[in-house]
Write a structure and sequence with these properties.
The protein is α+β, with helices and mostly antiparallel strands. It contains 2 helices and 5 strands, in the order βααββββ.
C-alpha cells in the first residue's frame, strides 16, 4: 500500500552523468521522468502472510514525526487507514 510518493532529483542519488546515461534505458516505465530527470520515490507499507503468520512491514515515516530527514519531518499526508 503506497503511503505517498515524491520526486527525487537524480543528483540526490549521484552526480555521475556517465553512470546515469548508461542506466536510464533499462529503468521501468514511471521510475524516472526523463524530462526532469527526477526519480519517483514511493514509500509503502507491506503486509506479508505465510504459515498462519501476518507481518506488517512499516517504514515508520508517518505523519508528525521529527528527525526523519528533510522529506519526512512533520509529514502531513492523508491517513490511508481512515475509514
Amino acid at each position: 500500500m503506497e503511503e505517498y510518493s515524491l520526486p527525487v532529483s537524480r543528483t540526490f542519488l549521484t552526480d555521475d552523468e556517465e553512470l546515469i546515461a548508461r542506466r536510464v534505458d533499462p529503468l521501468p516505465e514511471g521510475f524516472l521522468d526523463r524530462e526532469t530527470m527526477n526519480f519517483r520515490f514511493s514509500n509503502r507499507s507491506w503486509v506479508a502472510r505465510a504459515d498462519g503468520l501476518t507481518v506488517l512491514v512499516d517504514p515508520c515515516t508517518g505523519n508528525g514525526r521529527k528527525g526523519r530527514g528533510p522529506y519526512f519531518d512533520d509529514l502531513d499526508v492523508p491517513d490511508f487507514c481512515a475509514g
